[in-house]
């Protein structure tokens, strides 16, 4: 969820990503998610950040 | 002297034996009965160490930690202290004591300011003191891998993110986790963000 969708020059906002996965035995191991943030940035209209973790028993 | 009949003595022996046997069974059952319910205690975190990369020079970097109270009584987080932040100008942490309710979750937000492009990989360490019956101290660490030079104000709307990559290491099954990114506009025109970012699975699941 994004705090504010319009940022004036110099402004910032937060992107909060809560995650509670219904994992169970057999779904462990490395996980990597890509989060694509779209905007009207003409040079970089899709900014991708990555989130990694390792599910362990 | 009265002599008891032998049958009477035999019955008494049998009854005594049975009584002992019953008592022995009762004791055995008591020993193997259900153990008293163990009440879970204390605070756990969604992660205790995290590595982030793609930090931009001079930009604030945020990181959040979920604080989960697995016990049946409130836990007081007395203090969050910055133990080591040698490559940051400032690290902002919660300043006031707060309470995590029984089986509840709170978020600790950390904001790190003033990274220099010349900074080598470094770690910010936080110390937490909690009160749950007794005092407990925990340590959280944030490792910042690389600081890139700031691009300066660019023409048009330009989207920046405080960090590009985050690795929170080992996570148990069915564990809630939370991540926070700071988005900023380093251009000279208003930046319009799409409301709902798309999440893609690159590996796992």
Give a description of the structure.
- The complex is a heterodimer of chains A (57) and B (205).
- Chain A is mostly beta strands and 57 residues long.
- Chain A is built from no helices and four strands.
- Chain A has strands at residues 6-7, 12-20, 29-38, 46-56.
- Chain A has a two-stranded antiparallel ribbon with strand order 3-4.
- Chain A is elongated, with a radius of gyration of 16 Å.
- In chain B, 13% of the residues lie in helices and 47% in strands.
- With 205 residues, chain B is mainly beta.
- Chain B is globular, with a radius of gyration of 31 Å.
- Chain B is built from one helix and 16 strands.
- In chain B, strand 9 (122-132) and strand 10 form a beta hairpin.
- The interface between A and B is large, with 52 and 55 residues.
- Strand 1 (6-7) of chain A pairs antiparallel with strand 15 (191-192) of chain B.
What is the structure about, briefly put?
The complex is a heterodimer of chains A (57) and B (205). With 57 residues, chain A is mainly β. Helices cover 0% and strands 56% of the residues of chain A.
Give a quick set of tags describing it.
heterodimer, A: 57 residues, B: 205 residues, mainly beta, six-stranded mixed β-sheet, 1 helix, 16 strands, globular
